[in-house]
Amino acid sequence: ADIARTGTCAGGLFGHPCTVASSRDIRGTQPEQSMGHASLIRLDADLVTSAGARCLDGSGGGFYWRAASSAQNGTKLVVFLQGGGECRSATECAVWDGGAGRGSAGWPKTKRLGEDELSDDSSVNPHFHDWNKLFVPYCSADMHSGTRLTPSHALGGGYFAGHNLINATLAQLRRSLPALAPSLVLLSGSSAGGIGVLLHADYFAAAWPAATVKAAPAAGFFYPAVSSERDFINGDATPARRLGLAAEWAPYVSPRCAALYPGEASKCTDAAFAWRALATPLFVRENQYDTAKLANCGCDASAALTANDTSYLRQWGRWVRGTLRDLGSEATPHGYFAPSCLSHAANLGWSAAPLIRGVSMLDSLAAWFFETGGAPARLADDCGELPCGGGGGGSCPHLPQDPLSRACVGRLAELCHGLRGRGDACDACLESHVHDLEAHGCPSRGRPLLRWYCGGGGAGGHHVCDVRIGTNDVALLPPPSEALPRIPTVTIAPGVEMPLINLGGVHSHPSNYSAWLQLGGRGLDTAMMYGDDVQVQVGDAVAASGLPREELFLTSKVPCCPAESFTSWCVWYDKEYKDLDAYTRSEIDARLLGVARVDLLLLHWPCATMEETVATYRSLERFALDGKASAIGISNFNASAIDALFAAGLTVPPAVNQVGFSIGGHSESRLGRDLDTLRKCREKGIAFSAYSPLGGLSGVDVLHHPRVLKVAAAHNRSAAQVALRWVTQQGVVAVSASSNPAHLASDLGSFSFNLTGAEMKALAEI
């Protein structure tokens, strides 16, 4: 960093001594630049050796430079990091030839910079065409991340020094262009270069502290955050750990990111996590269905997508949209442009990108970069299906791809030229030429594809077609409103409807709250005792969902201490909140959740004495009467505790009693986990709610019990769905918990069948 800023060496890079060659001005030494061409500047020998700035084969690196075409833009700079995949084994690394190749020996002295942000054609690149251009070739096979000074024997003897090359490039710029003082910088890159941008945005900004640096990676976001915690996609999703190469690449991690994820620095190689540590403004260009993800679901891009492939990718799209909403919240300076396309980077260029709601990618990026407000800076196709991008007149690659579909759409384009995306007018044209279209291979089952065309590739409210790659099959996918489950509700208080299933989680096992909301869940359950971090996670999921607050149902709980049954929890709690009354604790809880009002606030358990219990409950009554909770209730109260509470005289009666309740777990009375408590709640008009509905507290292995499995087989459902349905079919509100998106989707699908009376009775007898 010292070299990058000053051109001098303070103690050497990576702890090694170094020397600095005398600077030379490349303006006096480079060949005359022809239109659109940039000159190769090779790194000085000392930077190659002391800074480890080597390509995969050990040769020294370099970069291409093209000066601004006008003096007024002499301090403006576009930096582009080239992409080209990575190598993951000694065998792959032996033949890897992505990007600029495995070595620099054959690099030409000049390179034409003719694409997108590098173009000098003002009709293609109106905002940046006459800026300085810095093109960083990709020759390290490590997503521009590696810091190795020695070759990796485990990966065939190659160097992985992408970060070293970037560091040395900045140093060489300082030497060769000592007068260069950027004021405005666009940092860009595609694919592996996009990951490099994420890793180094703040690094470039630190090298030019007087400049405004903004980063706009393409196809470098790769993995949505909500899926990266579990093994749903064949292991950890961070690129370095996923490929098992963290030790071999030794990827660069910014100090800011390492501090954000103590002990988990490898998350900093995953853009979906790394962006949270960035101080540099970020504009993400990412397809919602990136073909680079196909390997993770076992999908084969050269074969037909199966129903499972399609389901997987549709869910992935929901995750991507949720992650981008989080990135682009009002609290951040970031933006995004995310077509609903099945592609990698080919359609994310200046002119190739489809429109989103009539807005081009370039217009959106320019509005974000220059802060003009001339176009939305946060755009994602919201058609919800795979794929449907271009909802304002653009189109996605790969759709349609098979001969029948191409002929079908091609003929309609000839017959109804200029009407694509014009809804009713296009529909009328379609109907008037239906016989002609059928003659061109568009039988009635091809109509959805033509409707897709008339809808502008996803707009207009039409069904969206999934044209399975390599086949003549056109399959209809339901519109988004039909794709999400409809969750029944119960009335717990006048005007207050609670979902019949909610997602909970505790400090040691938090759930995947964002995925739950994206899958169609609307009820979230949490508590102060689960920890401030869990409360914040829940609140972040609510904020990032983009859903109207009135569509969500948020339950929280405040403890009652000292307690008879939860003494260990009270020991921890009293360290933080002992001197605060329950009303103040409830206010703190709402602030942690980021909401002005919770939908349901429960007293988590009875206090050590009924007097203390009643006093604490009075605080909850005040909280509700002040409009800060729509309803209040209790938890872990048995029948006798409910009678005692009512005997004290209540202004706001409890709306809900949440207790442990499940198949095999409905006979323990101390904490209300029994049928007597269920009957008492119904007598008092209290909704009954069940945590651990899968039997975790019952002492019975419910999910493997022969009787449960027999019922599950009869309905072609999972044991977990049967366990949940046994609870909810009694009108009992279930509170499940999981971080696995597949499990969450299964839970939400548990309302799709009913158990018979005989089955309910048989399960109750376990």
Chain-wise SSE layout:
Elements: H1 2-6, E1 37-42, H2 45-50, E2 62-66, E3 76-81, H3 90-95, E4 110-112, E5 132-136, H4 162-176, E6 184-190, H5 192-207, E7 212-218, H6 239-242, H7 246-249, H8 255-260, H9 271-274, E8 283-285, E9 289-290, H10 307-327, E10 335-338, E11 342-343, H11 361-370, E12 378-380, H12 403-415, H13 424-432, H14 434-439, H15 447-454, E13 464-467, E14 474-477, H16 480-483, E15 489-493, E16 496-499, E17 501-503, H17 513-519, E18 523-525, H18 532-545, E19 553-558, H19 567-577, H20 582-593, E20 598-603, H21 610-625, E21 629-635, H22 639-647, E22 656-660, E23 667-668, E24 673-674, H23 675-684, E25 687-691, H24 706-715, H25 719-728, E26 733-736, H26 741-748, H27 757-764
Parallel strand pairs: 3-5, 3-6, 6-7, 8-10, 9-11, 10-12, 17-26, 18-19, 19-20, 20-21, 21-22, 22-25, 25-26
Antiparallel strand pairs: 1-2, 1-4, 2-5, 13-14, 15-16, 23-24
Helix pairs in contact: 10-17, 10-18, 17-18, 20-21, 24-25
